[in-house]
Recover the amino acids of this structure.
């Protein structure tokens, strides 16, 4: 069409162009056509105003479309976040980063949470990164745009991060920015209920100025993310609580079931005790109910009944744990998961239970079940002890009759028949042991003596504060040591023991008892309470010492200066005196025994004269000194002390 035939554009043409697609391009053509057709200045001014208004309308329309697209994207994001929330918090964070990148059309988007006590932000999700440096990065105050956004509580953006001097830079953050090639960046803060806070980042690998609309959209997304994170964490917390409640419920039902099974087993055990079942049967049922291996032991450690396989323990360890259990009054654990429980009845100790569970005990349920079982075992032991007590009265009466001095011939024949009925064979060698706890509970010691005599097939008697035992055997010293070893830890106080024998025949019992009692008295006079002695160990002192009021005082009054000199100066004057008297008061023969020069013996005797006085070698004084020396040596032997020379030899041997 020629210019002459073309029509000059008007405002109506502008409106028509606005109604069509490609309006922006058409408006520019209308201005070009008007200039080409020679429009007047007034016409051009009017047309330019119309085109400017039309462009403004187009811009607003474009902005409305962008806002609509943003709202649609945010709605889709909210749906995606809700779906991710159902999976996990981490899924929600990852979805938020993906949506932020898509919403602002940036190269990289990531999210940081502020959960550390030091105030730092940790990058927990990232989308679009090309290195592994971003995830896990900790941004500490006051560095980075995210930290600045949180501190100010408002969005913070920069067109070129590394070149922006208004930002507090750190080498760690800058290294990540350089590695990712980032330039334009924006961060918006968010906060949610439950103390959750953080920042949502968008970054571009070119210089970019973020518009207010873009920052507003990112802030809206951050708010949605914060709300979703709070909700997701609440859901996770509720899920954890639900799982915990379900676990607690299952455990509670398990406990109820175990308790019901234990009650049924307890009733069964009580029925067995009432029916008079053997301890072995009760032990087997108890071990099966508890689930493990179980053994019942006497106070002295003797095995009464067992079911299942138990480890072998050293006697010292088992004795110590048994004493701990007795002291605590409840089961105590061993190092390998086994338990030792005290068995008591009527306030008296009856024994111990050793139990090794198939599955280690957790909490208090296991020990509580063990205590229930132990009570039935205690009832069984009490039942057996009551039976033994009824028999024990006859045995005690027999022992008392054997100790009576006025039995007639007829009475002895009757006692012999009674002894045979009770299993006491007069022709078998026996010993008498007399034990005295130095304090503590005699009731506990008496219960032990009853049990011990029953186990050893012997007899027992209680006279005053002493326990007397008639025991089969051929070694009085060994019998005394065994009783001392078992009784001492039980009563928790020193136990002094005298013993005599062996003999045969019931007529010898009273004499042996008197000998054992004299040994006990001798130990007391020697100040050796807590020791063990027999007439053979004491020699003639066992007879003499019953009339001595205080052996330590007597020895001190006769040899005090000499013993003090030996103790303080490390001399051997007491030893020299013993050898001197044994050598018939001959310094030369004493020197040969002592392996020293006779002059040395002479000098020692001179010094002893200074200590004891000029008359120490008179007959009366020498008898006293020799008796005191013998008492001193015997007392040291009973107390387990070595002479000074022997101690030196032992020390040098150890060195």
């Amino acid at each position: 069409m020629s210019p002459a035939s073309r029509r000059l554009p008007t405002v109506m043409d502008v409106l028509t162009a606005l109604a069509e697609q490609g309006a922006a391009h058409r408006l520019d053509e209308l201005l070009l056509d008007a200039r080409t057709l020679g429009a007047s200045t007034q016409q051009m001014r009017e047309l330019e105003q119309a085109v400017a208004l039309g462009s403004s309308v187009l811009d607003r329309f474009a902005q409305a479309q962008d806002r609509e697209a943003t709202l649609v994207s945010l709605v889709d994001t909210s749906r995606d976040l809700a779906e991710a929330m159902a999976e996990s918090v981490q899924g929600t964070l990852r979805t938020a980063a993906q949506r932020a990148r898509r919403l602002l059309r940036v190269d990289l988007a990531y999210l940081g949470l502020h959960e550390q006590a030091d105030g730092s932000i940790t990058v927990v999700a990232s989308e679009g990164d090309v290195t592994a440096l971003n995830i896990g990065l900790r941004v500490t105050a006051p560095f980075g745009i995210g930290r600045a956004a949180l501190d100010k509580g408002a969005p913070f953006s920069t067109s070129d991060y590394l070149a922006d001097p208004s930002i507090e830079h750190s080498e760690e953050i800058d290294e990540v920015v350089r590695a990712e090639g980032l330039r334009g960046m924006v961060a918006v803060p968010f906060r949610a209920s439950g103390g959750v806070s953080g920042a949502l980042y968008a970054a571009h690998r070119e210089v970019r100025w973020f518009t207010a609309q873009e920052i507003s959209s990112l802030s809206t997304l951050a708010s949605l993310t914060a709300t979703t994170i709070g909700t997701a964490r609440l859901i996770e917390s509720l899920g954890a609580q639900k799982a915990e409640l379900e676990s607690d419920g299952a455990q509670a039902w398990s406990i109820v079931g175990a308790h019901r099974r234990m009650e049924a087993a307890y009733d069964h055990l009580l029925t067995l005790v009432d029916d008079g079942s053997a301890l072995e049967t009760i032990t087997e049922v108890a071990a099966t109910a508890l689930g493990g291996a179980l053994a019942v032991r006497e106070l002295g450690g003797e095995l009464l009944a067992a079911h299942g396989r138990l480890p072998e323990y050293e006697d010292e360890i088992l004795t110590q744990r048994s004493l701990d259990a007795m002291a605590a009054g409840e089961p105590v654990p061993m190092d390998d998961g086994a338990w030792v429980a005290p068995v008591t009845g009527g306030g008296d100790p009856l024994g111990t239970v050793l139990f090794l569970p198939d599955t280690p005990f957790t909490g208090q349920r296991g020990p509580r079940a063990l205590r229930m079982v132990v009570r039935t075992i205690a009832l069984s032991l009490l039942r057996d002890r009551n039976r033994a007590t009824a028999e024990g009265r006859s045995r005690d009466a027999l022992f008392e009759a054997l100790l009576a001095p006025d039995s007639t011939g007829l009475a002895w024949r009757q006692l012999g028949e009674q002894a045979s009925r009770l299993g006491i064979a007069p022709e078998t060698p026996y010993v008498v042991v007399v034990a005295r706890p130095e304090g503590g509970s005699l009731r506990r010691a008496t219960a032990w003596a009853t049990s011990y005599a029953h186990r050893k097939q012997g007899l027992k008697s209680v006279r005053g504060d002493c326990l007397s035992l008639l025991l089969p055997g051929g070694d009085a010293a060994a019998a005394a040591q065994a009783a001392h070893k078992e009784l001492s830890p039980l009563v928790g106080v020193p136990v002094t023991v005298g013993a005599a024998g062996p003999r045969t025949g019931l007529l010898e019992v009273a004499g042996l008892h008197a000998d054992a009692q004299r040994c006990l008295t001798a130990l007391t006079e020697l100040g050796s309470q807590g020791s063990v002695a027999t007439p053979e160990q004491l020699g003639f002192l066992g007879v003499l010492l019953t009339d001595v009021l205080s052996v330590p005082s007597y020895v001190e009054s006769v040899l005090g200066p000499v013993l003090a000199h030996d103790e303080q100066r490390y001399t051997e004057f007491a030893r020299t005196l013993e050898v001197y008297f044994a050598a018939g008061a001959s310094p030369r023969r004493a020197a040969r025994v002592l392996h020293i020069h006779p002059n040395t013996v002479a000098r020692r005797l001179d010094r002893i004269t200074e200590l004891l006085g000029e008359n120490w070698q008179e007959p009366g004084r020498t008898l006293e000194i020799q008796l005191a020396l013998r008492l001193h040596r015997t007392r040291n032997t009973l107390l387990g002390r070595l002479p000074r020379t022997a101690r030196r030899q032992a020390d040098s041997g150890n060195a």
In short: Residues 644-655 have pLDDT under 50 and may be disordered. The two ends are 131 Å apart (CA to CA). The longest strand covers residues 348-357.
